[in-house]
Amino acid sequence: MSNNKGRKLRDLDLHFEREKERYGHPLPSRELILKTLNEQGVPVTEQALQGLLEITEEENEIFSRRLSAMMREGQIMRNRKSDIYVAEKLDLIKGKIQGHADGFGFLIPDDGTTDLFLSPKEMRKVLHGDSVMVREIGIDRRGRKEGTIVEVLERAIKQLVGRLHIDYGILFVEAENKRISQDILVPKEESMDAREGQVVTVEIIQQPGKNAQPIGRIVEILGDYTAPGMEIEIALRKHDLPYQFPREVETLSAKFPEGVLKKDLAGRENICHLPLVTIDGETARDFDDAVYCERNGKGYKLYVAIADVSHYVRPNDALDKEALNRGNSVYFPRRVIPMLPEVLSNGLCSLNPQVERLCMVCEMNINIDGDFDDYRFYPAVMLSHVRFTYTQVAAILSDPKGDDAKQYAKIVWHIQLLYELYKVLLKARERRGAIDFETIETQMTFNDLGKIEQILPLKRNDAHRLIEECMLAANVCASDFLQEHKQPTVYRTHEGPTPEKLDVLRNFLKEFGLQLGGGGQPCAQDYAKTLVKIKDRPDAQLLQTVMLRSLRQAVYSPDNTGHFGLAYESYTHFTSPIRRYPDLLVHRAIKAVLKGTTYSPGNWHELGKHCSQTERRADEAGRDVESWLKCFFMQDRIGECFGGVISTVTGFGLFVALDGVYVEGLVHISELPKDYFHFDSGKHMLIGERSGQRYRLGDRMRVKIVRVDLETSKIDFVPAGKNE
Predict the structure, then answer these.
(1) Which domains, and CATH codes, for the chain?
(2) Long-range contacts at 616-621 (CB < 8 A, ≥ 24 apart)
(3) Cα–Cα distance for residue pair 479/582, rounded to 1 Å
(4) pLDDT tens digit string along 531-540?
(5) Which of 5, 146, 460, 570 has the fewest CB atoms within 10 Å, measured from its CB?
(6) What is the pTM of this model?
(7) What is the pLDDT of residues 133-184, one digit of tens each?
(8) Alpha carbon distance, N-terminus to C-terminus of the chain
């Protein structure tokens, strides 16, 4: 076939123009490669495929890279002879491995179809997170679809954190992530002379196979398992959280000035005269937002000024790429892993008191009914007049003549006006029907060794709620502004219950003589009305918990499906660009509209998905750290008895939350009175077959602590005897 004829083949490629836009020298598209393979009807060698597609010698290397990418994504595969064939021809299923601590696992298909069970024998070939191709082989004894791994497309784990063990001279690392059930063998010469029991980071130098365990080399010794702060060091590595800034970021950060420069003021309004204040927690160091309120006729004018991070973090620079990689700041007890370097997060972008700062302002006119008459966004320069804590503001509101109020006499009127506006917005919230679940957050206090002294309930006061309503107002306006101007963005979306969860909830409420309104599509107001009905009942906590669990998680998405819980048709995040990447995207989008342009950072769906994932990653890491700290806190209390509430019911037992100490543990089903207990997921209950004994979510239970396992961060209880 002549080269001219080859050119004609590429000209016939339906996706030639797309390839031409992406590459200076366009290759055959993936679609054409698959079409060509399908037409052959049999596997072909790479050399034969190159001939069919007229790949020149100069194109060989880049064409091989394209084939490798198609293999990683499960579009094509190679047989034992390295011949290439279309994966779909073999009815293979592509997905990711989800491991289990007991050695088995599951394939989570990319197309969202039913998970496939993978036996421990199959799981020996892979590690948690690997991308694979699986063939369905039948149904296992429990009625689950079962699969066998045909091809590993991509290895997910290059490094992991765990504890080194030495058994009869054999060194191996037990992964901290319990979804990785395989031990990593470590040759003596690759051990860095780490000691038995130490926490280490190990690099995988040989991935597992059908007849081979994974092998690794130790690249970092973190230290002893119970050393102060070790739980955070482990969580950072276990969840692959970026915790060190790349050199390019450090270099760029060193160039920032200490304060606002004169040239930065161009095109900005000066609102330094407004007595804006920040209101945050006692330990806060990064101040995203400042507020000010004044009268506007019978209504109010609310200013919400937000740190203008987008002025300093430019699209696609080193700072921006690392901020996107992190997605958000991660907050651990006594330590923060910031999204941005401290020179910005605690310095130049933080709205510290009595220094000029660049900001984006949402200025809102709100009437006496809590509705927005109008609003506007603009870049400005501001000055925070006072840094308040929630405790101080709560004290001022409760005692306008007290010491705190006297100290800030010139600003007290403005705080009181903010509170007045808060009550107006609160009534509007109630009319809107937003859901307000009463949840208990906790706060840990630590001793000098970094271990928990106490776990205390964190009480939200009106100062917390006041700031929350101000931020909600600005977020709603930001969403409305971008939607009105047809500027794509990432919305903060929260969908209502799935039909399946709704049915379960309705059946559960029916047992208590309750009914959730709204038919097949309830709205937030229907939930809110039911919450009002149950709030004074002794079983209110149980009912509220089941209602909360019926809802889906909030995510970031360019598809505006509304926010169910807050009862907003359109909602986004604008108020925390120092610690959330989606907010930074929203700021850039607003600035683009103000300039009459459009902001296009790339694939909005992929950005939303990534930011949702980094948020979940941070939450999981935070839970791991808190669980370990709570275990350490309770290890000296084995044998003690506590009253508690059943917080979760599962097929294998009951989780009980202890009164006063806010710690959860498991009463395994085998520890319950001798009987066959059956799990009713719809009723959140374990029921004894012979005795009829019932254990239900929300029931009170007295338990004794019998085991605390620091390695797995688990606490085991047994039912306490009558005299205990």
Answers:
(1) 3-88 (1.10.10), 91-154 (2.40.50.140), 159-225 (2.40.50.700), 247-487+575-619 (no CATH), 638-719 (2.40.50.140)
(2) 617/239, 617/240, 617/241, 617/327, 618/241, 618/327, 618/328, 618/329, 618/330, 618/331, 620/239, 621/235, 621/236, 621/238, 621/239, 621/241, 621/330, 621/332
(3) 12
(4) 988 988 888 8
(5) 5
(6) 0.85
(7) 888 888 888 888 898 898 888 999 999 999 999 999 999 999 999 999 999 9
(8) 89
